[in-house]
Description:
The protein has 288 residues and is of the alpha/beta class.
Amino acid sequence: MKNFKKLFLLGSLVLSLTLTACGGAKQETKxxxxxxxxxxxxxxxxxxxxxIGVSPTPHGEIVEGLKPEFEKxxxxxxxxxxxxxxxxxLQLEAGxxxxxxxxxxxxxxxxxxxxNITNLDVLGFVHIExxxxxxxxxxxxDEIEDGAEIIMPNDPSNGxxxxxxxxxxxxxxxxxxxNLNSTEKDIAENPKNLKFTxxxxxxxxxxxxxxxxxxxxxxxxxxxxLDPVNDSIFLESKDSPYANxxxxxxxxxxxxxxxxxxEVLNSDAAKKxxxxxxxxxxxxxxxx
Length: 288
């Protein structure tokens, strides 16, 4: 009888441990599944997540202003602001950004060639920022004196663009105006003996008052409170080839989320935002 009780108790104990083990296994399975669900949700979110590097003005303002449109398209767009023209491309190439929106194609071509970068491509064009000539000393181009100092961007593409602007303003004559790689050496005529000082594009708007005149990119001019239409003494033509673009890595260019991105940036909502907010200082480069 005692042996029977021992066997009964032993059997009950084994059964209890077995049930506990099975229950524990089920609980672990539930916990594992619970842990997997957020990961799957994150993965789904990442499929529509785009981290885009921009210049704060006007690029960042345009993207931020279109946030509701991106959400309607199922996109989660995160904006990262840059105050220089180098890091956005380097970080895109490295994979720290999914896209960038701050430059025109002549600059992208020049940058990638100089640094031997081969995996960046144009997703689409969004707007034109007319480059302009500003002066705190002169009220018109005709007033610019002999020997005056002109500050201009020191990067090759914007430097050439500035020279073309100065020719359009009647201040110089280039050997070949269609050459988008022109430098100071390509100036054929300089009747006013102008002196050229090249410096980083972002800095020019902060110091232009110390010179006779300065050629400033509109994004930096606007960032310093300047109105390219009303404050400049000469404004670039609307036919400029320097439309600002969105760049991505080549192997991701056909991704559905990037197609949605450029669709929103080329939409009627984007056109309306650009025209109403910037009033001619920034011009849509699509829907013409």
